TrEMBL record:
Keywords: Oxidoreductase. Its cofactor is thiamine diphosphate. This is 3-methyl-2-oxobutanoate dehydrogenase (2-methylpropanoyl-transferring). Residues 5-180 form the Transketolase-like pyrimidine-binding domain. The lineage of its organism: Bacteria, Bacillati, Actinomycetota, Actinomycetes, Kitasatosporales. Its EC number is 1.2.4.4. PANTHER family: 2-OXOISOVALERATE DEHYDROGENASE SUBUNIT BETA, MITOCHONDRIAL, 2-OXOISOVALERATE DEHYDROGENASE SUBUNIT BETA-RELATED. Gene3D superfamilies: 3.40.50.920, 3.40.50.970. SUPFAM superfamilies: Thiamin diphosphate-binding fold (THDP-binding), TK C-terminal domain-like. It is an enzyme of class 1 (oxidoreductase).
C-alpha cells in the first residue's frame, strides 16, 4: 500500500527497514541517536534499535568514515551521516584514498558496503559551510557511486539499494526537499539504482536535473507550457554513473538540452553531461547544450542565496536561448 510521506520520513523508514532486515547494518554520525539528527532523519532509530546499532559519534568526520571502513572490513554495512555538506571535507581523504580504492587495491577480494549520507544544497537560509554542493568532487573519484533522490519514493528505495550495495555509495540528500511529500509504495519493485527517469514527457527541449533541481525543472515546464512549449524533464537520479543512454534517447527526440544543478557550472557535472551529449548526439542537436547552476564563487550568506541559486527565470532564460537557435 502506498503511503504519503515527506522525503526525510522516507529515508527514516528505509533505514528502519534496513536495520530490521540485517543485524550487520549500523547507523553512525553526529547526533544521529538521541537527537535523531539535526533534520530528524534518524529520529527514533536509536530508541528502537539501541546504542550499538545507531551510534552517536564524536565531532570527527574523518574518524567516522575511517571507523566505517574498519567495520565494513569486518562484515558490517555502515550507514554514516555527515551532518552538513560542508563538513565532509575533513573526511575527504578517507573517502577518496581509502574507501573508494579498497576494492581495487584488494583485486576485488574486499567489499566496501558503506553508505555516506550527506544533506546537501541550499535553500534553507543556513550559515557558511552548510549549503555546499560538492557532488562533482566525488563523481571524479573512481570507485564511488554518487546518487541523489528528488522525491520521497526514490529516497526510500534508493537508500535500500545503497545499503545493499557492496560498493561505497555517496548518498546526497537534498535538504531543501526534506519536507516535500510524495507517495511511497514500500512493497514496490524498484528500478535500477542508476537509471534515469523521464518525469514529464515533452517534445521541444529536455531539462536534465537531479536532486533538488528536479522540482524546479517541473515548475519551469509548467510555466513554459503556458507559452505553448513542450519541455521534457529528465530526473538523472545518479551522478556517477550517469545514465547517458536515457539522456541520448531524450535529446534525440527533443534535439535540445539544458542541464540544471545547484552546484557551480564551472567544472560541474553538467559539463560532463554536455560534453558526452555533444559527442553522442552531434547530428541531432539543433542548439548547443546549455547549463544552469551556481556561480564560481563561495556560497553566499543566507540573504543572497536566492540570487545565487538557479530559479525559474534563470532556467527559462536558458530555455529561451536554446529555442532561439
Amino acid at each position: 500500500m502506498a503511503e504519503k510521506m515527506a522525503l526525510a520520513k522516507a529515508i527514516n523508514e528505509s533505514l528502519r527497514r534496513a536495520l530490521d532486515a540485517d543485524p550487520k547494518v549500523v547507523v553512525m554520525g553526529e547526533d544521529v541517536g538521541k537527537l535523531g539528527g539535526v533534520f530528524r532523519v534518524t529520529d527514533g532509530l536509536q530508541k528502537d534499535f539501541g546504542e550499538s546499532r545507531v551510534i552517536d559519534t564524536p565531532l570527527a568526520e574523518s574518524g567516522i568514515v575511517g571507523t566505517a571502513i574498519g567495520l565494513a572490513l569486518r562484515g558490517y554495512r555502515p550507514v554514516v551521516e555527515i551532518q552538513f555538506d560542508g563538513f565532509v571535507f575533513p573526511a575527504y581523504d578517507q573517502i577518496v584514498t581509502q574507501l573508494a580504492k579498497m576494492h581495487a587495491r584488494a583485486l576485488g577480494k574486499v567489499k566496501m558496503p558503506v553508505v555516506v549520507r550527506i544533506p546537501y544544497g541550499g535553500g534553507i537560509g543556513a550559515v557558511e559551510h552548510h549549503s555546499e554542493s560538492p557532488e562533482a568532487l566525488f563523481a571524479h573519484v573512481a570507485g564511488l557511486k554518487i546518487v541523489s533522490p528528488s522525491n520521497a519514493s526514490d529516497a526510500y528505495w534508493m537508500m535500500q539499494q545503497a545499503v545493499q550495495s557492496d560498493d561505497p555509495v555517496i548518498f546526497f540528500e537534498p535538504k531543501r526537499r526534506y519536507w516535500d511529500k510524495g507517495e511511497v509504495d514500500t512493497e514496490a519493485i524498484p528500478g535500477p539504482l542508476h537509471k534515469a527517469r523521464v518525469v514529464r514527457e515533452g517534445t521541444d527541449l529536455t531539462l536534465a536535473a537531479y536532486g533538488p533541481m528536479v522540482k524546479l525543472c517541473q515548475e519551469v515546464a509548467d510555466a513554459a507550457a503556458e507559452e505553448g512549449r513542450s519541455l521534457e524533464v529528465l530526473d538523472l537520479r545518479s551522478v556517477s554513473p550517469i545514465d547517458f543512454d536515457a539522456v541520448q534517447a531524450s535529446v534525440e527526440k527533443t534535439r535540445r538540452l539544458v542541464v540544471v544543478h545547484e552546484a557551480p557550472v564551472f567544472f560541474g557535472s553538467g559539463a560532463e553531461i554536455a560534453a558526452r551529449t555533444t559527442e553522442r548526439c552531434f547530428y541531432h542537436l539543433e542548439a548547443p547544450v546549455l547549463r544552469v547552476g551556481g556561480y564560481h564563487a563561495p556560497y553566499p550568506p543566507a540573504r543572497l542565496e536566492e540570487s545565487y541559486l538557479p530559479d525559474l527565470d534563470r532556467v527559462l532564460d536558458a530555455v529561451d536561448r536554446s529555442l532561439a537557435y
